[in-house]
Amino acid sequence: MRFALFLAWAHLKRRPLQTALALLGVGVGVAVLLAALSLTNGFVSGLVRATLKAYPHLVLFSLGAELPPLPPHPEVEHAAPFAATKALLTRPAEGARGPGVDFATLVGLGEGGEALYPELGLRLEPGGIYLGSALMQSLGAVVGDRIYALSATQERVALRVLGSFRTGNYLLDAGYAFVDLKAVEKLSGLKAQGYQVRLKDPWRAKEVGLALAGTRFFPQAWQDTQRTLLEQLSLQKRVLGILVFLIVAVAALGVANLLVLKVVEKTPEIALLRAMGASRTTVGLVFALEGVFLGAGGVLLGNLLGYLLCLYLALRPLDLPGELYFLTHLPVEMRLSDFLVVSGASLLATFLSSLLPLFRALRVQPGVVLR
Questions:
Q1: How far is residue 355's CA from residue 336's CA, in Å, rounded to a whole number?
Q2: Which CATH number, 3.10.20, 2.40.40, 3.30.1340, 2.30.29, labels domain 76-199?
Q3: Which of 68, 328, 336, 350 has its CA 20 to 30 A from that of 271?
């Protein structure tokens, strides 16, 4: 074993440029794969966090004419009755400013509704409205302006702009507004439709919804309303991982090419070693160890480069057009599981690629070569 280690290390040191290029090829492939997965993780998590800033973890729709009381549950942090409707928002021309008009979803919240969205800083009051930042810009409104909401039934309600909110999810920022419950009831003629609920753990929304529903409520977890998007993002991560892994596979083939050239170059040396009593196992072990050294070194280098690249992207996030990608910047989320899976898969790919030169070395016939 020690003799095989000595020879493997000596072979790698003899051609430092080729060895460095092989290590760099594997390292860059691993780093790119880790960065791509971390960016995908960050995109999904960032989108979920941005969405839940202004979207309920759980909605319980009442199945009766009257809104029944909400049963207690240890996972529930806050709950409030709500009603939602679509409306056309208009702002009359004023001074040098022209008129503004846009469609929006008005979410009316009852008592305790502000606590559902603590990051938005809502302070609802009768006749007031909080607009998404993009919606506010579209209307050309400022705090204190009077705007009018027009429903499909031609009901018209005057509202005063109390402020704006920004989640980072462009669809919410451009299409949502919060008002008090009575404003929606007056505009649409609807009573409270149910409860919006904030949970300690948003990912348990389905479980809690089933526990609270009974025969009085129809539960709708945020994962259900966002299911298509979450499934698309999950599929995107898997496809992206496979495509980028091909970079590692190409680098592994580069390692195999390097080892094959070494076998061809060292064929007389291999024959001499065999003639001097070295076993097939020892000879094969030399080239197997070279593949392990190159693979392990490349993976370690790739993990370091990937970590540094992810840190840079976390400190200097990439800006995104929110109207296309929902988020205004691309966050990074590194996961230990991704590093472990990528490292293991890359080591396996490199080791498998070293089998070809290993078998070629084992087939060398010392008698034929020395003759």
A1: 29
A2: 2.40.40
A3: 350
